[in-house]
Amino acid sequence: xxxxxxxxxxxxxxxxxxxxxxxxxxxxxxxxxxxxxxxxxxxxxxxxxxxxxxxxxxxxxxxxxxxxxxxxxxxxxxxxxxxxxxxxxxxxxxxxxxxxxxxxxxxxxxxxxxxxxxxxxxxxxxxxxxxxxxxxxxxxxxxxxxxxxxxxxxxxxxxxxxxxxxxxxxxxxxxxxxxxxxxx
Length: 184
Fold this sequence. Notes:
By secondary structure, the protein is α+β, with helices and mostly antiparallel strands. The protein contains 3 helices and 12 strands. Helix content is 21%, strand content 28%. A 6-stranded mixed beta sheet has the order 3-6-7-8-9-10, with helices on both faces. A two-stranded antiparallel sheet has the order 1-2.
């Protein structure tokens, strides 16, 4: 009996694939394509709110580049991993120009909004990967429990409730947003 081995893709091979016709989201995790269904309403609303607030702040203050729609960056090589946070930000110093291909360095800020179909292990896998590649600030927003989980490399997890305020810390100095505003 023979077993077929799956060919692992590189970030470049993954980048040449067509978008899924059904609108699903794909990421490359250790050379293997992981597909998730299109997000639903609450997820999209929360992404739009946090994305618009972050992008306006970044643009108004001429800080760098903000992205939405799961813009891919290379999280690791050999085997390759390409992740696409719901919202992300790179300072102008770290990313002076926007590349045509996947971004080769991790963002200063990555924001993930938990979907109803997300599984704890998948979300935690993303968190571990982001922190391991030195994402300076990570916000995981959960619309179901109406909370924001704030991660920093080497620092304890902070959990913000609706009555708290989300702070950009030194990554987005001066950015503040009431957590309750994320949830319609």
